Amino acid sequence: MSVNIFTGDKMNQFSNLAQPKKNPLAGFYRQPKIYVSLPSKGQFYPAGSLDVSADGQYPVYAMTAKDELMFKTPDALLSGQSTVELIKSCIPSILDPWVMPNIDLDFALIAIRIATYGDKMEIGCNCPHCNAENSYDIDLTAWFGVFNNFVYSSHINIDPLTVHIRPYTYREVTKTAIKSMEQQRIFQVINDENLSDEDKLEKFGKSFIKLTELTVDIIADCITQIDAPDGSVDDKAMIKDFISNCSKDVFDQIQKHVVSMKDQIEFKAQDVTCGECNKEFSLPVTMDQANFFAVKS
Ligand SMILES: [Zn+2]
Known about the structure:
Helix 2 runs antiparallel to helix 4 (about 80-90). The strands form four sheets. The chain has a four-stranded antiparallel β-sheet with strand order 5-6-7-8. Strands 1-2 form a two-stranded antiparallel ribbon. The chain has a two-stranded antiparallel sheet with strand order 3-4. The chain contains eleven helices and ten strands. It has helices spanning about 1-20, 65-70, 75-80, 80-90, 105-115, 140-150, 170-190, 195-220, 235-245, 250-265, 290, and strands at about 35, 60, 120-125, 135-140, 155-160, 160-165, 225-230, 230-235, 270-275, 280-285. The radius of gyration is 24 Å and the shape is globular.
């Protein structure tokens, strides 16, 4: 009997493929809460990773209970998987968030947060002067203005060269964060272990070199092409070789440009006044897990 039911279900699935049967509850599914235009304007997405909209507007849905539960899991957050699932669920036009440009990432999270909890984000902070507990409402919609004026400048002129860059993908950002964390951990282990000074020095040196290599790799990875008077280069290995051998001045100019792109869309610290002692201080604003959820009621 149960076998028959199973077969029946399978049959239904096949017929559903041809003519989808509408769930009578579909009208009660969550609807888009807001429509946004992405800071990247849809550029830098590999083919098939963004369901491009004709008018540049993308629907953003509120989180489901499942999204919230998953995004609250600290381990999943570290790997980036829960962020990917969250974006897929709430901004379904972004088909593959792993390859989305990082310039859209914070924006996407803010949009999801606004769609779910509204445009105020409460941040708690102890006053650095008198240690009194304060809480401030950050207006997230104001951040949208910052993103709307953002233009990603994808080339750097370093006479006579022109260096073309692209934003990092979310996968690259996550990998880099994990690698750099591993190396930082080695630094800490060196301090804890009962090693001879000689061994410590060796481990420290190795770890330091790895961190330096990582910095070079990070810069080389975002360069797509370099135009020189004698021709253009888009070969990854050649570009990396150039970055390893160019002058400090050239490297610094590229790095400065890459960092400045990121700084433009970073959360800026807010000047706030302590409710207890009335002194001013600077409140760092981050879109971390603790701030993301409207835990206060
Ligand atoms: Zn105070």
